[in-house]
Structure formats: structure tokens, C-alpha cells
Protein 1
Amino acid sequence: MLSRLLRFYEVTMQDKRQLKREQFTPVTYLLLTVALFFTMVLCICIGSVRISFSDTVTAVWNAVWKLPIPENIAKNIILNVRLPRVLCVVLAGGALSICGAAMQGLLRNPLADGSTMGVSSGAALGAMIAIATGFTLPGFSFGGSMILAMVFAFGSLILILSLSYALDRSLSTGSIILIGVIFTMFISAIISLIITFASDHTRSLSFWTMGSFSGVNYDQVKILCAALVLCGAILFRFSPELNAFAIGEDNARHIGVNVKRVKLIILITVSVLIGVCVSIAGTVSFVGLIMPHIARMLVGPNHKRLLPASLFSGAIFLLLADLAARTLLSPVELPIGVVTSLVGAVAFVIIFYKTRKVRS
Amino acid sequence: MLAGPNGAGKSTLIETIAQGIPYTGSILWQDQDIHTLKPSQLARMIGVLSQRNNVSYAYSVEEVVGLGRYAHRAGLFSGKDDEGKGQVEKALEMTGLTDLRHASMLTLSGGETQRVFLAQVFAQNPQVLILDEPANHLDLKYQQHIFSLIRQWLQEPGRAVLSVVHDLSLARKYGTHAILMDHGKCISQGEISEVMTPDNLQQVYGMDVYEWMREMLSQWQEC
């Protein structure tokens, strides 16, 4: 896969005038779905307790069709621990990745995503305030943190864009990233302050800053699934508009795009999706930054292809990151945000360098 | 042709017509206030080619030209655009971009990029084309090429072009009517020969423009 990626990139760079775009055909979708399925099964199999491929498939298949599961299969581990976790990781990875793709398209900024723009930090702060103050919704134990995470995510996005606009009216890459980084540091300071004073909840609160899918349940899977289906459908519907933003907001308006309305819808959608992901798994950085670029190298920048490709690639990447987090230092589990940050930071520098090289 | 010195308000007027900046009063198109139109309805009537154009990410020439058809399939469920493919092909052919259709926009020169955006506006197929200094930042070859393409586009009945130009020679060569502006006001409007009189130009530019043009032309006549 990596050598194919590199070969594609080299060929593209050698013959710059003619784009050699990979075809994103139904067969490609099928192959990606199969790759995702196998990665999911692999992640269920591997862990502190090794489970065979056949046992995993049998347990899941029988559970879906309400058939009896053989006693020798570790069904509790598969169905109550690993499967909900794997499903959450897939959904969150896909969600963060399409949010990154949408933000990079909307803002014409290849370095835009929830983590670089401080949106994830804002969402984490909202969730943390909900937990620290005990804000909940009746009959919905994590509803309070989810609502506040979404509200703070949207508020953070608007604040960062407004500050960037005040600093530099062209909303350049540099100013948005600068404001985003400063904002993230500011929010981190506030989060540290909350953790310091909320000593009873310290352990549960500190994971927001590092990310973790440990202990997720099927209720959270359902909510994440619903959010991804709804928000993903909205973002996919606005693929033509996201493509139009590539020629600039003024030109997008000239060709008939209702720029203000589209921007608002996409920003709200992205905030909701990032808010839901952060409320369940904390801050997982760099997925939304890196994976759209990988997807763009494979299928091109057209959002009709880019969004599905980002969804699949984000899901697979986060699955592998979660697997590494669980197994590298087993039985100690690393926060998943640490793994994605380690990989993502290096990839970030490479992408930044390549982006500037191509543009120059 | 829309002419006038820097700061006269030419680009502001164009952006106002394109609904890019707020304004008081009304802009009428065939007795209809265009402010009441949806962006897609306006785009089907008016196409705008800006001075400077660029594309983020490696879209192909064909994809960028195809964006011009957005207004014809806008809607919640993206309506069908039967003419779309034909209009895009015609636009690519008119602008000589057929061979470059699969090229990445990031690899094109300034002149080629401007041609792509011109093709996009052609594909949009509006009734009125608004050009904001279309030949700016282009060499002489591309300047001539762009204007001859626009002239070719104008041959179909029911079309009009409103172009901002700094070069008064271009205005006289390609324009039939003109609006001369200064400090946000219309000084004169009508046929080119009636608008671009020595007195009008002296009033607006504060210099003897005819003498200046004769001086420039004499540089070439000596060769």
C-alpha cells in the first residue's frame, strides 16, 4: 500500500501536467470496505487475550442473527469490550477524517482540521465543564457533555476564524494555524486548571486531553453512528459547494453558491460531529489533518470522491492507532491521542513541506 | 467598457452588481431587482471574471470549468443539467483548453489559469459577462487572445459584456459603449466616441490623455 502510494505520488510529480488520477470505482469502494472489515476483525482478535479470527467472526455473526454462541469462545470480551470499542474507533476515525476534509475544502487551507484549529480543544473544554459541574440530561448520562462539547466546538471555530480575520483579512494558512495553536494552548491551561481543582474526577477528566476509547459502550456507538450518518450525509450533499470553495469565496458566489449559508451549515455540521467524537473519546489529534491528504493523493480533491475516501482511510488509520495504543506497551494502554500525535506530527511536517514545494 | 482612474469605484460597482458588497438603492435587470434573486438565479444571468484567479488543490482544468455549471444544477437535491456536458466541451474548445483538460490547475501559467476561468464563465452561459480587468497581469499575447475570445463569445445574440479596463486603447478597440467614472460618480456614459472625448478624459485623469497616447504611439512609429 505504501509503495503504491509513493509510486503514485512520484509519477504525479514527474508528469505534473497530466493528472494520473486513480479511478474511484465501485470496485475500489468494495476493496476499501473489505480492507476495513479485515482491519476491524484483526483489531478484535489482537489484544491482551488473543482470539482467533474464526472465533471472532462466529461470535459476531451469531450475535447479529441471535444464534447461540459456543461456550469456548470469549464472547464477553468480543461482544462487550472489543466490538463496541472497534465500532467506536471506526466511526470516530471516519468522522474526524471527513471533518478535516470538509474544513480543508471550506477554508482552502491544507492544514485545517479540528486539532490544528483548536476546535477539538474547545469541545474537550465543553465536555470537561459538563463533567466537572455535573451537567447532564435526564435519562441520558453523557448527554450534557455531548451538548456542551458541540456548543464549545462551534464557538471555538467561530472565535478562531474571527480572530484570524481581525489579524489577517485574507484568512491565510499561517494566521489560522497560529491563532489555532495559541487557542489550543490557552484551552489546555484552562483544562489543567479544572483538573487541578476537580481532584475527585481527575482520572476521568484527564483522558479528554489525550484521547481514549476504553470502556465505550453500544449506546455511544449508536449516537456516534447516528451523528456520522446525518452529518456525513450533509457534508456529502455539499460536495459541489466544497469543490466550488476551491476557487475562492468570491468566485464561488459568482457561480451561484450561497456562500454564507453553506459556510454556516458546514461549520455547524463539523462542530456537531467533532463535538460528539470528543465527548466520547476525548481529543484525538491529527486524524482529520493527515488522512484527507492521503485520500487526496489517491482520489484527487473532488469532494464526491474525497469524502468517502477520507471516511475509509480515517477509520482504518484510527483502528491501527488504537491497536498500537492497546498492544505496544501491553498491559499498559497508551492514550490513543499520543499514538496519533506521534505519527501525525511527522506526517504534518512532510505534508507542509510537500504542499509548499508543489505550490512554489 | 467601464473606465476611470484608480479609486473611481469601478471594481466596487462590479462587486455591487455581483452582490458581493452591501449597498443602498436597487439594481434592476429587466425591471427586476436583482437583490431579490437567489445566488443561483443571479449566476444564470450574470457571470463574473475576476482579476486574479487561483485554485487550491490539484483540480483538473475540466473540473474547474465544470464548476461553471453549478447554478444550472443548484438545489437541495442537485437538479439535472442536460446541457452541462455540451457547454463545458464548447467552452474548452473555444478557449483552446481541450488538450489541457486533464492537467492540474497548480501547474498552469497565469495566462492559462485566466483562460480556464474564462472557459468556466463561458460554461456558465450567462447573459451578461462582467470582467474585472481581464487582461491584467497578462502578457500581450494573452491580452489579445482573451479579448478575441470574448469578442467571439459576444457573437451569439442576447449577450453583453461589461468590462473594467485601465488601458483606454483596449477600451476603444474592443468596446462599443463606455461608462466613465471618477470618485464614485458617473461622469459620462454612451457610445465610446461620445464618452472618451479629450475634455472628459482631461476632467477625469487630470492630464491630456490624447497627447499622452499620441506620444506612446509615436515610439512605435519611429521603429
Protein 2
Amino acid sequence: MIIIQLLKRITRRTIFLIVGIFISLGIIFSDVEWVKRVNLEILRRTITPASKQAYDFIESLPAGTTVLVSADYGPSTRVEADPILENFLKQCFRKDINVIAISLWPDGAPIVATKTRQIAKMYNKQEDVDFVIGGYVVGGGVAIEKMGVDLKSAIPLIADNPAPFLKDIKTANDLGLVFAIAAGDTLVFYIRILKSRYGANVSGGCTAVMAAEMYPYILSGQLIGLFGGLKGAADYEILVSNPEPDQVSEAVKYMLTQSLIHSLIIIFIIIANIVFLYDRMKIKSK
Amino acid sequence: MKREIPLLITAITGLIIIINYFLPEITGGVTQVVRTWNIIISSFAIILGILNLVIVSLRKTLEPITHLDDRIANIVLILSLIATIIVGMIYGVNSQTETSLRFITDNRYALPIISIELSSFDNNPFTSVIFYSIYNPLSAAMFSLLAFFIASASYRAFRARNLEATLLLFAASIVILGRVPVGDLIFGLVGLKISPISEYITAVINAAGQRAIMIAVGIGTIIISLKLLFGIERSHLGKGE
């Protein structure tokens, strides 16, 4: 009974303190060799079918295809979204796929520009030859609608770009794939407008909290796979580069922190229910 | 006429967009113009937003009843806004590399001298510093607080009060554990795999519920759109005459 009394004294501050300690432990131990090996081993065996579907589709695109990547997220969700963008760019440049990089979010524009240039350098790709930066595209859903009719008028920064691969691109339907990484509702707009109305292939990634909303679109075939949250990002990294423990990036490393916090939440739920059921039994017995 | 003209504009614009969905060849040109207008008008909304923010913050700063902390926060907000606009206008917004500030400690002297160094210079260091060294970590810090609140909320909210709550509790627990390697590690000890169960809940049970919500929302949107087109719904015109 003393234990129950102690458990009852858990306050919001106690929870915050324990969560803080667990996050710190996760970050500190995420670079330990055996932790990375265990993480990798389990992640390799549990690749999400939606992640595999998206990866396979991109892998099936022939060299020379042009794709549009729309990084619609800000710094707040970079931990989840950045690895998806990086791995998508790696896969595209490895396969000699041309990339148009844009963002429908103002704070996503510098992120997508910097990341695209960084990854392109690794694969010796040239700006305005193998890829173009379209910057921030104003208009949200309306801009997406314009892409279906006239891609270059929707993305003004690429309208006069001399990149040779842009010559044959008139509308979004001429693209091999539209890949949106979203922390908001833009992925849904791409599906509802570009896929449903104009027939373009749409795939993408999103934050973990949004992934559940996307499943009806995956099942109906309107969305070709999905990289959902940090788990999706880790799946993508394993599929693209199948790294060894000493080569893993943040997506796989931070799965330890996520594992710890998810376990902690489950422990808190169990404690809360033990206290709740004990109180209920006590009331009933009276 | 103050209300009739905006209602007429709403109805005509809405009809053009609807007709374009079914007959794109006929109304394609007009629809493109309407879409361009939409993008231009939404750009003006940014200016309105900034003006509104400045006015509200200035009013709060000058009001005698405002607490000192709030006053400082509002002054910081206005100064940051002005600084970002000036830097953006002078140096532009494009940057080539991710620049970050580094603290360098020099221990050669009795008191360590700490200096700040830019990890990498690019064509646009000021914009880059504002975005990557100030906005980026602040924004990430705000969002990371979510972990603390979710842990606290789940402790207080997830109780097996009745059958529905118990089902929700179990489904949520399976999905929470199924999305991370530790879930399979724990259940692997008793020869079970939790990730396929988690995937089943997300892909089948959740998708069925989501679909129902989507269809309901879709029908609701059609009704609201029709009410707007016919001038029954007038809330977008505002309350004033």
C-alpha cells in the first residue's frame, strides 16, 4: 500500500524530470556500438510495408526521369523529416534521376536548398544541369493546382532555368514522381489534386503523428507508399544504404531515444492504471 | 450593395472553379487568372499579418498594465522582426551552406577566453546565422516540449474506465511499442512479434475509421461550399456593415 501511496504522489514535474533523464540517456548512448547494432538488427527485420512500397517505386524509375521533391516542413520537424529528404535525394542522384526541389513552406525553402546542394555534391551532380532549386512556392493548394496545368508558371524560379531536363516538362503529369515530405496538410493536397485530378504519381513522407491519416490513401493506391516519422526515415536509410553500425546516421541512432520514451510512456500508463484500479476496488469494497 | 457584390464575386469565382473541373478546355484561361490572383492576394496576407503583429505588440508594450516580462518579450519580437526583414532585404534569403555558431574556448590564459566562430562561411552569413543558429534551434526546442506533454497527458488520460477506453488503451499501447525496436525486443523474449500487430491496427482498423471520417468531412465540405456559393453562409464577409 505504501507503493500505491508513492505512485499517487507522481506529479507532472516528476514525469517531466524522468522524461528529461531518459531523453538525455538516449542521446548519450545512441552512439554506442552495440546499441546501434541491436537497433539495426531489429529495424532490418521490421521494415514497414509502406516504406518498402515507396522505395521500390522510386527504384523502378528509369535514369533520366525528372521528379519533384517538395519539402514542406520547418525546423521543428527536421529530426523526422530531414533523413527522409536526404535518403530520397541519395536514391535519386544514385539512379541519375533529375530533381526539382521546392518547398510550400517559407522556412522549408532554405532547408531543401541546402540539403539538395549537399547531397548533390556527394554524387557530383551540378545545379541547373542535374537538379534545380525552385525555392519557396507561394499559394499552397492553389500552387499545386497550377502545377497540374503549367508547372513552370507555378514555380517561377524554374521558369527560365536552362537545365536541359526541364525542356520536356510542361505539367506535373510529365514528372516521374511527386515526392512530398510534409509536416502539415500539403501531402494530402498533392494526393487530392495532382494524383486524383491530373494522374501524377505521388509518394512521400510525413511526421509520425500524421502517418495514421495517410493509410486510406496508401490502400486506395493514390499514395505510393509512405515514410512515416523517424521509423520511416530509419527504414529508408536501411533500404537505400544498408549501413553497418559505424555508418548509421541520426535516423537509426535516435530510434534508441524514441524506444526509451515510448517504453517510459507505457510504464506511466501501467502505473496510472494500477493506481486507478486500486482506487476503484477500494471504493467498491466500501 | 456592400454585401451583394462580395457575394456575387464569391458565387462567380466558385462556379468558374467548379465548371473548370468538368470542362477544363472551356474555362482553363479564366481559371488560371483566378489562381494567379489567389496567389497574389495570399502574398498580401503576409503584409497584413506583419502589420497586425506589430500593432498588437506595440500596444501591449505601451500599455501601463502590461507586466515587465511581457513587455520585454514584445520588444524582442519587434526587434527580431525588424532585424530579419532588414537582413533579408540587404543580403537576400539564399544561402549555400548550413552555417552555425561555435563557441571556441581559449585556455592559454588564466581566465578562459570564449569566442564565437562561424563554422562555415557562405555567400550569405547573416541570413544563414538567423535561420540556422537562432530560428532553427528555438523552433526545434519548442516542438521537442511535446515529448514531455505527451508523457504527462498519457499518464493522466489513458485509464481503463470502460470497455471503449480499455480497447483504446490496448490499441495505443501496441502501436506505441510496435513503432520502435524495443517493442520487438521485449516481445521477442516470449516469441512474439509486435510490429506486425501494430501495422495491422494502423493499416486496417485505423484506415477504416479514417476513411469514415474523411467521407463525412468531404460531405460537410460540399455542403459548406454550396452554402457559400448560394450566399447562405456569409461569415467570410465579416460582421460589420
